[in-house]
Amino acid sequence: MTVMRWFAMQESGVLLGHFEPVEADLLGLAITQLLEMLNAGSADPELAASDAVFARLLPDAYRDDDEAAAEFRRFTAPGLLERKAQNAQIVRDSLGVSETSEADATGPGAASASGANPDTDTNTDDRQPITIPLDPDTVQAWLRSLTDLRLTLADRLQISPDGDVHLTTEDMPFLRELYEWLGMLQEELVYVIDV
C-alpha cells in the first residue's frame, strides 16, 4: 500500500495538497524563479535560442536539420514559453505567493518565498502546514510546472542522458535533493489522479 504524503483525493472528489511551511516556501521560491526565467526567455528570443536550459524546455523538433529546427523554434517558442509561464503562475497563485514576497536566491539558507530565511527566522517552526485545493486545471498546471522545474534543474546539475550528474560545485547536493524531491511530488500527484 502506498502512503500519500503531499496529495490526497477526498471522497468529494477534491484533490488537496498538504505541505509543511518550509516545503511551500521552497516550492514557491523555485516556481517564482522558473516564472522569472520563462518571462526573460519570452522577452528575449535570442536568450531563449542560446541558453541551454531553454533547449531542455523546448527541444528541437528536427534533430537532423538545424535550419528547420531554428525556423520551427522561431514560430513556436514564444507561445510555448507563454503557456509554461501561465502554468507556473497558476502554481504560484495556488501556493499563495505574492508579487512582493519574491526572493532572488538559491541553495541552502536562501530566503524563502515568504521572505523568511529558514536559517535565521525563529518563527518558521511555529507556522502551520498549508492545505491547497487543486481543481483539474490547476493539477495540470502543477504537473507541467513540476516537469519544467525538473528540466531546469537537470540543466543546472548537468545531468547527462545516462542520468549521471556532472555538476561539482558546492550547490550540487542541495540541487540534487531538490530535483529528487520535485520528482517525488510529481510521481505522487500522478499516482493520486490516476487512482
TrEMBL record:
<feature type="region of interest" description="Disordered">
    <location>
        <begin position="96"/>
        <end position="133"/>
    </location>
</feature>
<dbReference type="InterPro" id="IPR018561">
    <property type="entry name" value="AosR"/>
</dbReference>
<feature type="compositionally biased region" description="Low complexity">
    <location>
        <begin position="103"/>
        <end position="119"/>
    </location>
</feature>
<dbReference type="Pfam" id="PF09438">
    <property type="entry name" value="DUF2017"/>
</dbReference>
<protein>
    <submittedName>
        <fullName>DUF2017 family protein</fullName>
    </submittedName>
</protein>
